[in-house]
Amino acid sequence: MSRSRGIGFLEAASIGIGGMVGGGVFAVLGLAVSMAHGGTVVAFGIAGAVALLTTYAYVKLSVTFPGQGGTVSYLNRAFGEGLATGALNVLLWLSYIIMLSLYACAFGSYGATFFPDTAQFVARHVLISGVILCIALLNMLSADVIGKAEDWIVGLKLLILLVFVALGSTGIEPARLAPSTWSSTVDLVAGGMIIFVAYEGFELIANAAGDIQDPTRTLPRAFYASVTGVILLYLLIAAVTVGNLPLADIIAAKDYALAAAARPFLGQAGFALIAVAALLSTASAINATLYGAARLSFVIARDGELPKLLTKKVWNKPLEGLIITALLTLLIANSLDLSSISTIGSAGFLIIFAAVNAANVLLRETTGGAAWISAAAAAACLGALAALIWRTVLDDPARLWVLGGMLGLAVLIEVGYRFVGGRVLNLFEK
Question: For position 237, which CATH number holds?
Answer without folding.
Answer: 1.20.1740.10
